[in-house]
Design goal:
The protein contains 4 helices and 13 strands. The protein has 255 residues and is of the alpha/beta class. Residues 28-96 are annotated as: Disordered. Pathway: Cell wall biogenesis; peptidoglycan biosynthesis.
Length: 255
């Protein structure tokens, strides 16, 4: 056997032995891959302006104005003013969370948000609720109160206020809904405020205090919540659940 024949046989045996790798699309990002952050030279005196694209914005603005400075902290794009595309709008399957023990006096069909525990509860009865993991407002941006869902929008567009764009040159005037938009697949607007319960394209933020006041969920979870929570649903935003209720709600699934 010649040397080339031996080499060809070895390559073929490796190809046969290597396990096949199945492609699995991103479960929550739906195929959108945010651009990697580029390392900048430590010798540069000034940091170049960050482009915006896909993962949201950090407005560094306190929440007491009642405005939604939405919402993610890592958005990037090569465009400045004008309209940005949000990318595709795939069909999102609802993902139901676990049912848990939740002894309470809230009306069935209402929503209770535990800011400290980073959980949203949809009340099913006086003893049970759905429990969803969420992201909440970062320090200085968290809030509490009672609102009602005033409207529901799938793949919502986003319009940064003019004063926000003045502080952050390069923000778009308008970003269309889609997988690149930080509002995700669904937004449930709270009263006349600009706060929302909404999806996200940054699932790594779920379970953290990182938003500018909005309540962030995975796209699958917010799609499920929107399917059972209608316009007019009462939303109780609490700083924290009572200690006893928090322990019970954290402990056990009701199936």
């Amino acid at each position: 056997m010649t040397r080339m024949s031996i080499l060809a046989a070895a390559i073929l045996s490796c190809a046969v032995a290597a396990p096949a790798q199945a492609f699995h699309p991103f479960q929550q990002n739906y195929g959108y891959v945010p651009p990697k952050k580029q390392k900048r030279s430590s010798q540069r005196a000034e940091r170049a302006p960050q482009p915006l694209f896909g993962m949201g914005w950090d407005w560094d603005r306190p929440q007491n104005s009642g405005r939604d400075d939405e919402d993610d902290d890592n958005a990037r794009s090569s465009a400045s003013e004008g309209t940005l595309t949000g990318g595709g709008r795939p069909n999102i399957s609802a993902v139901a969370p676990p049912k848990v023990s939740f002894p309470n006096s809230y009306a069935p069909g209402s929503i209770v948000i535990d800011t400290a525990g980073r959980r949203l509860y949809y009340v099913l009865s006086s003893t049970t609720a759905y429990r969803y993991p969420i992201a909440v407002g970062k320090q200085g941006f968290a809030w509490s109160g009672v609102e009602k869902i005033s409207r529901k929008v799938a793949w919502p567009d986003w319009y940064p206020p003019a004063e926000m764009r003045a502080r952050k040159p390069g923000l778009p005037v308008h970003m269309q809904g889609g997988v690149r938009n930080p509002l995700g697949a669904m937004a449930l607007y709270l009263g006349s405020t600009l706060y929302r319960i909404h999806g996200t394209n940054d699932v790594s933020s779920i379970g953290t205090a990182t938003s500018s006041g909005c309540i962030r969920m995975t796209n699958g979870n917010v799609t499920h919540l929107a399917s059972i929570a209608g316009v007019g649903t009462t939303v109780h935003v609490l700083k924290r659940l009572p200690a006893g209720l928090a322990r019970v709600a954290k402990a056990g699934s009701e199936g």
